[in-house]
Each structure stands twice: as C-alpha cells, then as structure tokens.
Amino acid sequence: MNANDAPAHTPPTPGHRLRRLGAALVTALAVGAGVAGSGGPAAAQEPAPAVDAPAAATGAAVLDASDVDAWLDERLPAALRDNKIAGATVAVVADGEIVTTRGYGDADTGADDSPRTPVDPERHLFRIGSVSKLITATAAMQLVESGSVDLDADIDAYLDFDLPRSFDEPITMRHLLTHTAGFEERIAGLIGKEGTQVDLRKALVTDPPEQVYRPGTMPAYSNYGNSLAGYIVEQVSGLSFDDYVEENIFDRLGMTSSSFRQPLPADLADRVSNGYDNVSSPAGYFEIIGTPPAGSMSASAPDMARFMLAHLGESVGDTPMLDEPTRELMHQPALDESTLGTLAGAPRMTLGFFDESRNGRRIIGHGGDTQYFHSHLQIYPEEGAGLFVSLNSTGTSGLAVHELRQDLTKAFADRYFPAVPDTAGNDTPVNNSPAGSAERAAMAAGTYGSSRAVESNFMTLFGLVGRTTVSVQDGDRLLFEPRPLSDSAAVYEEIEPWVWREVGGQNTVAMRAVDGKVDAISFDSAFALVPVETARSTYLAIPVIVASTLILLLTVLAWPIGAIGRRLLRRTPRDRAGRTARILSRVAVVSALLAIGGWVGSIVLIMGMENLSTVSLRNVQVAQLIGLIGVVPAAVRLADDIRWRVGWSRIAGSALVLLALIGTGWFAVEFMLLSPNISY
Asked: Cα separations (Å) of 17 from 45, 82, 179, 369?
C-alpha cells in the first residue's frame, strides 16, 4: 500500500472513525501491484515516461553515513515513541555501497520476562511482509530472462491445475506481476499461528478467488496472483520456491540472513525480532503466511541493502541477479493504454514494483505488512540510491504506522533528492484546466470503494467501510473525502484530460469513463477506486440494517413485557386464529437477530485472522434464510391483524416487524450473505 503527501489532519467525525476502521481492514489484508511477444526483454511495453535525473538541487543534504545516521537518529526514536512501536531496522544504500544500517528500539522488550534486547541491524531479522513480492517477481523475471517463461503467454502452460476463469482473455505472468489478473480478494489462511502447516499448491487450488475483472484492465492488488507467480517458479524450475530463491537470489547476493522458510532454519530462528501489537504488549507469535511467495520472507537490514544494490545494477556477489536488459524491463511500467485506457495516466506497476516517484525523480518500491511487522523499500534507479525500513509493531494504529513509513520515505526524498524547480509542479494551482474539465469532474462525482475486495460472498460487508466520496468543487475541481489510504480530505485539479493532481501535493490519480460514467479511478499503481452501486450505498445500507435490527431487538424485548402486562391486567388471550403465522414470524425475528449477531462475530474473528469453520458459517446462513422466509408469515400476520381489527398498536407492531424482516432480508440478498460460496 502506498500513498504520498497527506494534507493537514481534519478533526475526527463518525465518518472518519468508519474510515479508520476501513484503513485497519486494508492493513489486515496487506501481508499487507499485454501485448504478444516472446516473453523476454523484447516483450516490453513502451519505455517509462522520461524522468530527467535532476542535477543536485540546491539545499540537498550529502547522502553519506554521517548525515544519514544523524538524520535517522533525530527522527526515528521520536517516531517510535510517539507511535508506541517497539523497534525498527533501517538500511540505506548509495553510489554502489551500503551507506548505513541502523537499529532502533528493541527486538525483545522484555515484556515476557525475557532479557531486553536492543535491535541490532546486523543480527536481527524482521518479517518484511509484501516486500517479499519483489523477491518473487525477481525470481519470475530470472525465468523470463532464461526463456523458460514467456511473459505474455497464458499461465495455463505452467500450471498443473485448472484455474477458474470468468473471461476468455489469457492470464499472463505480466498480469500476475502487475496485479491486473482480475482476482477478487481472499483472506482465509493468509496468516496462521505457529505450527500451521503450509502447502502452497493446496492454498492455490482450494477455493481460488473469482476473477472479477478482465485481465490487464484493472489494478487490483492480489496476494493470490503473486503467489501464483511463485508457484510457476516452482513448476518451471523443478525446485521448491524456498530452494529456488536461496540458490538463485540469496546465495548469489550473499544474503545469508534471509529466508522464506516457515519456521525459520535453526541458524536463523533465534535471530528474528519479536513482533508486537505495541510497545507495551506481550510478544506476538511467529506468523505463518499461508501463501509464502506473497509475504513470508524474514531478512536483516544488510541483506535488504544487498538486494537493493543488485536492483540498482551494482556488482553484488559473484553472479549477477539479472542481466541489465531484464532489470531495466522489470523497472519500467508494464502495461499501457491498450488495456488500461486512461488509467495509464496514473502511477503504474512495473513488473513487481510500485511507481512511487516524487520531486520529479523516478522512485520504485513496495510496502509490506503482517499483523505485527510493517516495512517499506524504495530504490532510485537514476540516482543509484535506496532506503529500506521495517518496524516490529503496529503501535497506535495500522493507519498511523502506514503514515509513519510514508513520512519517512518522503522526508528521505526531500532531504537527499529534493525537487529541482519546475520538476515537481506542486506548489501552485494549475489555473489552466484542460477543456472539458468541468464535464469530466461531474462524471466523477459519487461514492467509491476499493478494487481490492471480495465480490462473490458475505465478505462484501467489508466494503461498507473505508469508502471515498468524490464531489465537485469550484466547478472543475474534485474533493476526495477521504483521500485514498488516509483519513483526511484532499482537493484535486485536472492537469491533463483524465489525470488529476492533488492541490499542494504530488499525488496524481487517473480516471477512466465508459458510456459517460467513471468506472475506475487509479491512485496507487496496484489500487483503484470503483463506483459503489446505489443499493450498496453506506447511507442506505447502514440505516436499513441498523433500523431493522433495533426494531427486531425491541420486538423481542416487548414479548415478555407484553406477556407480563396481559397477565397483570388479566386480558383475554388472543384468538387462536392466525396463531401459526404469529409463531412463525417470531421464529423469523429470532433467527434474523441470531444471523446478525453471527455475521458480526464472524467479521470480528476474520479481522483477527481467525479461521472460521464451514459449519459455523452455514449455520449463520440458515438463520439468515429463516429470517428471510419469515417475511411470508409476517405478512400473513399483518393481514390478519388488519382483518380482525386488533387495534392500531398491534397493527403498527406487526407492520414494523414485517418491514424489519424485509430490511434484513434485502440486506442479506444485496450483500450476498446467502451466497453458496463462503470462501473468504
């Protein structure tokens, strides 16, 4: 996950709190993006947009050990303290050398009566989460370089199982490495506790995610897609993924303190940092990543420095990791307008890296998150520099630790590679919007959710939080509330048709319209916003389900109160006519409430990375179905009450119960709570 400048923080509101929850969900998911050709370097798309390597800008600090160490020492300890993070490890490279490796805080806080151990960057390994995907992409590109894998061939040629498809177009390695294969999200089995058994093939074959987007057309980050790339490395090389990366990447580069293995080999197991919720919490368990190529790597800062240097074309080890043409191909935008359309105007994925350019300089990188560890790597191909940072705690919140990393990488760029005048273009408004800007702004107005989502079952519920509202300001500007991956708003103005830049910042987004309506807004290489259907609007769905739930709860509470009242007042029991409908409607009310409670409990457990049994989910669905079917007896009861003129209060009560059951039933159908598919 990536974001650049964040505007000033706005006061929290209930909407902001929902968005923070959405950001937390995104963090929980983040462990944590074609033309025909030979598949080798000649199969590249168009070259990357020219980014002039600016001459040293006035005011740039000298990137040497003395300055970097002093800068980090001044910045990071305070950031760790303010965010309640236990420890961090950092590596910086430049000019073909490791400039520095630094450790801050503790690898073991001593919270579990163990000795307190400060972070030693040379010794301690950190879990790097989805930064692992860069190693997986590099391994895949080695096979492209050797001619063993065609970058633009259908991956069916390399798989030993049938991958379900929704579209006729092939899925290629290019799509996997750019997060455009079109898969929906999957969460189950992503992170397990110590002792969890890992079987990559089984994880990929069992309940694969549905393909919800046409290949090559929509940035939609996918752990599953990257893990498929890792599995293809296994299939083509004849080696396990762990063995392949050890022999062809780690051993070549002298990365002796790195491994994808789970648990770690004995010689590394006692060197890995503990992971923490926050500095005051007990140490967490060693996380087992269910699809290892997407995020299981543990590494030391010096090893990540070697990896960065190798990608910068420096001589690291005895055998080059990639030859120069393949390395340069890997660093270029990998898709163009032929499939992305106008979304190509936003930052685009290379073959593995995000475009994180800043200050008019090309920067490529990748972030990564597990439950406890949060990391980021960036390299500057033209300047020959790189930065890696990893934190061993979530601290105050997932969004806060994300912003800490972003603040550090931005500050590094601004200190050592500041903008040359007229290259960043972010200091003043454009004031000369392209013709038709107002019309395009009007098309963009609406509510959007993430392209990285579950679309085929009850997990569509996650889409109710973390949404972005886009509205028009000043006729042709757009207000994003909140800006993606943030809890604060930002205003954007169009700088060329379909491309918008944040006012006062460097963020850019690109939009694509189909039949006069925006169908996607790309904002971060492997992430896009997609329109939310009116029926799934938060402003409709939340009031309906909340009001329905309250009515059902009050109804259940009224039953014993009514019974006691009738007994005390010695009222005549109701006529037996219609008794069956009354009983069945009561069963429906109880079932609907049990279903609502079941879904809430299930979502809480899933957010905690707990696996849910099929039986428990099916039981919740049965309760939900009974509640939906109960609309029929509830309608019969209301008709009977009207027919027998039982009094306005009873008729109103019966009508409210019917409306509440209709409300919960509509919600269940709209958000696919009754879908036969319960894979998540």
From this structure: 42, 20, 29, 21
